[in-house]
Design a protein that fits this description.
- This protein has 55 residues and is of the alpha+beta class.
- It has two helices and two strands.
- It has a single domain, classed as 2-Layer Sandwich (Alpha-Beta Plaits), CATH 3.30.70.
């Protein structure tokens, strides 16, 4: 889950995701495609503002 209030649209999560499961929505906020996500934790660990929490 991405907290859109915390997301600063830096793109770190998009670039680090090994399966391309993260993209930006129309508001330039990151979104995770749950059908592609493998729950590796790379995005959560790399987010500079702690906006990502994997379930």
């Amino acid at each position: 889950m991405i907290d859109k209030n915390k997301c600063i649209s830096c793109g770190t999560c998009v670039s680090i995701c090994p399966v391309g499961a993260i993209s930006f929505d129309k508001d330039a906020k990151a979104v995770i495609d749950k059908t592609k996500c493998i729950h590796c934790g790379a995005c959560e660990a790399s987010c500079p503002v702690g906006a990502i929490k994997l379930d």
